[in-house]
Amino acid sequence: MSKPPTLTLPREARAYRLATARGDFAVHDAGEPRSGTALLVPGFTGSKEDFIALLAPLARQGFRVVAVDGRGQHETGGPRRESAYAQDELALDVLAQAEALDGDVHLVGHSLGGLIARAAVLRDPAPFASLTIMSSGPAAISPAQQARTRMLLDALAAMDMEEVWQAMRDLDPPEAADAATPPAIGEFLRRRWLANVPEQLVATGRQLLTEPDRVAELAAVPLPKHVLSGAVDYAWPVPLMDEMARRLRARRTVIEGAEHSPGAERPRETADALAAFWHACRAVGPEPSRSITRFPG
């Protein structure tokens, strides 16, 4: 679970509901599209707030940045049936969000959002200027995280959301432990969890357990690609993401000092890496770089 470092929107940003052909989605929207527009898709149990620290630095570099709560996440809401959260449905939502924005869109998917963003691009790459897969791998999550996710799914079947929230504190991986969470952030995390639609969590949790390797399909799509992660990751091992980037012939960025949520843990470095990639896309076309870049933390 990503922990945003702040809940205060920068002065460049506003919160509203983005109207699309597939319904309205809660978003944070910052900046003007002088250099392009980016759509940021959060991960499992996440929300638009996971990207809040990226908004101002990316807006200052000339990008309009739109971070979204997906269907069934936090402030967007959604149906109480699991079929509404099939990956194809969520990919169609991303395509509708992109179509509602002006011009070609730089798509960023974090964790589960990376799998959903990949599915959207495979379905129709036309609305997108590039794809960044952030802290997301080629297929299902690591065996250790699969075990934790199965425990969470079992808990969701047996308990209500408040009870699961209390039990879930014991499921956090040791790698995710950090300094004490500020009370306001802790209360937000609980409030966000309770706002999630349980059926969304069940359906997307199963996706994390069963996602097939679609890297070869994605490599065939003529779109600039970028694989970005922290230096440590408990959901997908970093060497696995290195190899995925090679298979995709994609730019590879490692944010030193960050783990599974570089946008929240090292926002300045992550924003610089994203902006550099997007500017390179405009400058040299569909294959801006294949090297590994390490941003010091």
Automatic annotation (TrEMBL):
<dbReference type="InterPro" id="IPR050471">
    <property type="entry name" value="AB_hydrolase"/>
</dbReference>
<dbReference type="Pfam" id="PF12697">
    <property type="entry name" value="Abhydrolase_6"/>
</dbReference>
<dbReference type="InterPro" id="IPR000073">
    <property type="entry name" value="AB_hydrolase_1"/>
</dbReference>
<feature type="domain" description="AB hydrolase-1">
    <location>
        <begin position="39"/>
        <end position="273"/>
    </location>
</feature>
<keyword id="KW-0378">Hydrolase</keyword>
<dbReference type="InterPro" id="IPR029058">
    <property type="entry name" value="AB_hydrolase_fold"/>
</dbReference>
<dbReference type="GO" id="GO:0016787">
    <property type="term" value="F:hydrolase activity"/>
</dbReference>
<protein>
    <submittedName>
        <fullName>Alpha/beta hydrolase</fullName>
    </submittedName>
</protein>
